[in-house]
Amino acid sequence: MNSILSLEGVSRSFGGLMAVGDVGFSVQPGEIFGLIGPNGAGKTTLFNLISGLTPVSAGRISFLGKDILGIAPHKVAGMGMARTFQNIRLFSGMSVLDNVRAPMQTFARTGLLSDLLGLPASRAQERRIRDKALELLGLVGLESKARDLASSLPYGERRRLEIARALALRPKLLLLDEPAAGLNLAEKAELSAFIRDLRTRFDLTVLIIEHHVPLVMGLCDRLAVLNFGRLICQGKPDEVRNDQCVIDAYLGDSHAVA
Ligand SMILES: Nc1ncnc2c1ncn2[C@@H]1O[C@H](COP(=O)(O)OP(=O)(O)OP(=O)(O)O)[C@@H](O)[C@H]1O
Questions:
Q1: Quick one: pLDDT band at residue 118, thresholds 50, 70, 90?
Q2: Residue 82 in contact with residue 174, Cβ under 8 Å?
Q3: Which end of the chain lies in a sparser environment, N or C, as judged by fewer CB atoms within 10 Å?
Q4: What is the mean pLDDT of the chain?
């Protein structure tokens, strides 16, 4: 099977610090693939390299069989890669609905002139976008809050809104950077079921960074483990759980990866 995302020898240094060094792995279509590792291991840097926000120092990254190095992040997004951020990035001064609508409008193909004049084709498109945005909000349980300001949402709901906004781009690959951060245990379990449901519903592939090890072990088909920027192990959850390098990386605490 052709992989949807493939990394070969990917490295990135910041001055003298090697944040990511010679990392390679492939993600297959439909997989939920986890990226774990201790603090500062290079996980978010790797997401930034994959989504084009940070240029690589060396290596190759291909998405859907195309080399994406040097392609601007919005173009990579347009190819079908969407992401969320560790520090939630919403348009906080905009409504919940507009947060989901904005990326859809960006990708909608209407002539600027007909938009400005409010011509019928454009109005019909606006309606379709609004309906689709409301549908996505319904999916994440936020339809009743469509008119609220994004900044007024509690933390867990802001995380869900970020996911709805990412889905608005109709991605093939969804990158989730610590989506369970700040959630309680019940919310984490809910999120896990939600991500599985999203995969099926949208025919998605998911790459997820997560610190909560029980969540990733239960959720992911395969995992890659980073430590000091290096890939120290990859495989199915059971293989990773029993890998001595992984146990050592988590300070020798076998319970941390149990
Ligand atoms: N823009 C930057 N400039 C300099 N150093 C950076 C930059 N971005 C990341 N780093 C460094 O690269 C290393 C990897 O950081 P990164 O945020 O990718 O790790 P992480 O695994 O995502 O950590 P965490 O789990 O704490 O979020 C860290 O030592 C960090 O300080």
A1: low
A2: yes
A3: N
A4: 88
41 Cα to the center of ligand 1, angstroms: 7
Using alpha carbons, select from 81, 40, 90 the residue that is nearest to residue 211. Answer: 40
Going from the C-alpha of 116 to that of each of 53, 78, 92, 123, the distances in angstroms are 31, 24, 25, 11
Residues of the chain with CATH 3.40.50.300: 1-80+171-258
54 HSE (CA, 13 A, CB side): 19
Structure tokens at 22: 């010679």
**Backbone φ and ψ of 132, nearest 5°:** -65, -40
- Ligand 1 center from residue 95 Cα (angstroms): 32
Which helix (H) or strand (E) covers residue 94, if one does?
A: none
Find the 210 Cα to ligand 1 centroid distance in Å. 15
Give me the phi and psi of 15, to 5 degrees please: 60, -125
Q: Is 70 exceeded by the pLDDT of residue 215?
A: yes
Testing ligand 1's pocket by substitution, the residue of 10, 11, 17 carrying the most ligand atoms inside 8 A of its CB is 17
Residue 45 CA: nearest ligand 1 atom is: 18
What order of strands is seen across the sheet that includes strand 58-63? 17-27, 5-14, 58-63, 66-67
Between the CA of 191 and the centroid of ligand 1 the distance, in Å, is 25
Domain 1-80+171-258 part of CATH 3.40.50.2300 = no
**Is the reported ipTM for this assembly greater than 0.85?**
yes
End-to-end CA distance of the chain: 31
The answer to whether the CB of 199 falls within 8 A of the CB of 163 is: no
